[in-house]
Task: structure prediction
Amino acid sequence: MAGETTSGAAPTSGFHPYIPAPTVLREFTPRAVIVGALLGMVFGMSSLYLVLKVGITVSASIPVAVISLALFRLWSKAGGRDATILENNIVQTAGSAGESIAFASA
Result:
């Protein structure tokens, strides 16, 4: 298999994280939590409607990620600060969780 060694030693290609550990970036910001919560509510309501009307639904994780990227990009073009990849991760997580909670409470 790829990455296996016969001597029991670790593979030669090491793991290099996308964001190094000593880097300090904004992550858990009010803006990210609010946008994630709003997108979670919108997708939760639309997914519940879709499942009750048609009988199928989709995961909101990818659409929330794409919409948050677009919203943050528009915000930065309007003069606000650009979002970090970690803020986008918080928005995607909050939006996906919000949609899942909507199904759990229904």
